[in-house]
Description:
heterodimer, A: alpha/beta, D-Maltodextrin-Binding Protein, domain 2, 2 domains, 10-stranded mixed sheet, 12 helices, 10 strands, 45% helix, globular, disordered N terminus, B: mainly alpha, MetI-like fold, two-stranded parallel ribbon, 77% helix, disordered C terminus
Amino acid sequence: MFFTCSLPTLRRAILAGLMFAVVVGLLAPCAQAADKLTIYSGRGERLIKPVLDAFTASTGIQIELLSSGTTELVNRLKAEGNHTSADLLITNDAGSLELARTAGLLRPLNMREVERAIPAQFRAPDNAWVGLSGRFWAVVYNTSLVKPDQVKSLLDLADPKWKDKIAIPNSGSEYLQAGVSVIRAIHGDEKTRQFLQGLKANADGQVYQKSSQIVDAVAKGQVALGIVNHYYIYRHLATQPNAPIAALMPDQFEGGMGAIMNVAGVGIIKSTKHLESAKLLVEFLVAHAGQKLFADLDKEYPLHPDVKADPALVERKSFRAALVPLTKLAELREPTLTLIEQVGLR
Amino acid sequence: MSTIRQQLASPLQLLALATAGLILLPLGYVTAQALSADPAVWIRLWSTRIPELLFNTVSLAASVAVVTLFLGVSTAWLVSRTEFPGRRMWEGALVLPLAMPTYVLAYVYSYLLGFDGPVEHLWQLLAGPQARIFSPHSYWGATLVMALDTFPFVYLLSRSALLSMNVSFEEVARASGASRLSTLWRVTLPLMRPSIAAGLALVILYVVSDFGAVSLLRYQTLTYAVFQQMTGRSDNTAASILSLLLVALALIFLITERWFRQRSRFYQTTGRYRAPQRQQYGWLGTVAITSYLGLIVAAAFVLPASLLIQWSLSPEAQATLDRRFFGFIWNSGLLAASAATGGVLIGLPLAYLASRRPTLLNVGCLQAAYAGYVLPGPVAALAVLVLFTQLAPVFYGSVLILIVAYVIHFLPAGLQSLEPALQQISPNLEEVSRTLGFGMRATWRRVTLPLIRNGFVVAWVLMFLQTMKELPATLLLRPVGFDTLAIRVWMEASEEYFQLAAPAALLIVLLSLPALALLVSKDWRAA
């Protein structure tokens, strides 16, 4: 009896409650707390979140993280203009940061901490973006299928003898685009085109969305070699020390172009309303403690000269990097994309 | 003249027009962007990507169609023309795969069939340690996953055709001396043809617009390519061109489906309905039928679901069930509820006007709302994105833009249950209410709305569910802090963290089950 009487009212109350919750839920994200930063991040969430969590733990500043593709986020920032809720942009590629800077999305920084910690070649001229960690194109190979002396240069990977034995990242990934830009800058368009055509034929269906999958495929012996950023190899080895894989830094011979380097970095968004907190985060990331996290957790090369890389990595001083300035990656991007599309990489 | 003015004057009419405009505008923008693109871009795409993408898309659709044709018709025939223990159970179980989003099935199969995976190990026991099976990341892998996921469409349509068919035709054939096989071939199947064709067109439409499975299986289709263009390039020209092609392709299949559905009316036979005789088989036959059906249901639902349960119970997965995870559930629920409510509110005037005042204009508005059918997720996202950046960049990155994309995308699913709900009430009831002295508004409130409530609820549930499972548009448009369950599944699964993806995937499947029951009893077409 009680129930039959109260059911309609109850239902109405529940409905009203739900609607209220929906409205509140929709509006809630708009309310900006003073000590909260919104970060657009083009890096894999599991690579950057621990570092940001450490920042929250030490400062109490909360972080709202949107993880997505770098190019996609730069597009989004352009479209959002001054209305964006983002305070910082973190990417996996210096070229994208430089493009964001030239599009006027980033705020030049005058911070002594940054200039002291990060060498000038890893920053924008006006410090609108700051490199945080270095990564290199490495060849990951299965130690039971390949001898390390079989590959001297990246260009060797286009050799038909590697047909169906190689895994590559998909052409949408910024680090592939940046790498191809470097090869173009050094070897010219025609040679790069031949390289890409050979690579495409050799990889065939083995085109992966994620670098971790490439390392996995090599470790299982599904393919013999792959092109990845070096830290994916060491991250895999850190969890599975017995995996039959190793890293190889290509193009180190006399006259070779050197390993292709890129940096992950950060920039503060021009329209940010939380400049002080944002600066605190940048400071945290370039300082000893932050740099050590990139080195220990992510197995990247820290850019701070006093912070050591993980001892498992190839000693940084033992190999050369290709001599193409990071800022140049931005202007190289468009023609690189055209070339990639002409070759028809996936 | 005056009638036109009268029509336009009605606020409901204006609302319907505005809605139709809102839905067609994004499509128009994408079309315009694609057509006004530099011819050099067209030429480049034609000479590099388009032939491959078209071939991949069409050949996947074709192979999935063939497999679902076989699976769907044979299972439908078994449950409606033979009698065996547990028949009613199997009748329901064959629908279960519809509760599995394609990306969940894809990720389970990329584990099962993967290099060095469990199936390969089994095979190596038989065929020697070096033996390899086909890779799931291939044409055949994509075919298998899509076919297992979509054959219930063909099954459901074929089954209802078999059940509603006038059995006298078959009896006449038998009486005239045709063998059982030849009756099936020359009478039953031709009578089922319209339903089968409609089911296949539905399957094909689904395959062509799928993003989740093909992206996880790395099989390049047009839909996947649109997504890649949008995320990898700084301008959307190439994405618009591919979208336009995709819309054209989807339109062809949609029209085919409608055409067959209309034609199927000619086959409706009158006469007293009598349940068809079900063939009984001996124990051998029963075992054969049961194992055939069991194999299909196991592959498409039971096996994946039990793997998801097993993975969800692993310590790695349990560790992810923190406050953040409940945030994802809340986001999914919130977005889905907003989109479903928005869809019902927008769909209602459209459906009402088209059924009560079926003028050319009103029917046109309703048809415009069906445009979502030919807008696969990434295209809907692109369309809304282009529209908002042109007209109202303020909303870029807000919840609104995502909800608009959902509504455009899923309105057809909602309309399919709103429309018949309205058509089923006779306008007489409303007229009676008016003559008895109720005003327009009171009639709506006290007569029309209560009568259409069921259709309303089904439409809401449908759109809620589809939004909850939606992947590409959410990936592209979600605002900060709006990761959903589907996003989590995709993010973890695309890095092959199978355990970590499992809890969210399992939750989606569980939430889909009750709604699936509702759909099967009402309108399952849009599942």
